[in-house]
Design goal:
Strands 1, 2, 3, 4, 5 and 6 form a six-stranded antiparallel beta sheet that branches. The chain has one domain. By secondary structure, the protein is an alpha+beta fold. It has two helices and six strands, in the order E-E-E-E-E-E-H-H.
Length: about 100
């Protein structure tokens, strides 16, 4: 990639991370993989949002807060020891009225 500035790696909770930026986007890398991005807001260019790659963006925050929160969110997701179980679908219960014989 051209135009990217890479910063010195840092360690958080025993894992090495590093940032790179093209000034309009910051990317958080772990082991060479981009796990989160911090992007400028379309309406407020001095405010930033976290993009974890799932299509949703965070609320508006300043750059320092966005980068800190991105590291903590990525670290939390990497420290999950087992996948979260999806909620089971809710079954419709039979109405008590149908369980009693007419009488």
């Amino acid at each position: 990639m051209t135009g990217w500035q890479t910063f010195k790696p840092f360690t958080y909770r025993g894992r090495a991370y590093h940032w790179r930026t093209d000034r309009s986007r910051w990317e958080l890398l772990v082991a060479g993989r981009v796990l989160a991005s911090v992007v400028t807001d379309a309406v407020y260019p001095n405010m930033w949002r976290i993009d974890l790659g799932d299509g949703a963006l965070s609320d508006l925050v300043n750059l320092t807060r966005a980068k800190d929160a991105a590291v903590r969110l990525v670290d939390a997701s990497l420290n999950v020891t087992k996948p979260l179980r999806r909620a089971l679908p809710v079954r419709e219960m039979e109405s008590p009225a149908t369980l009693c014989p007419p009488g």
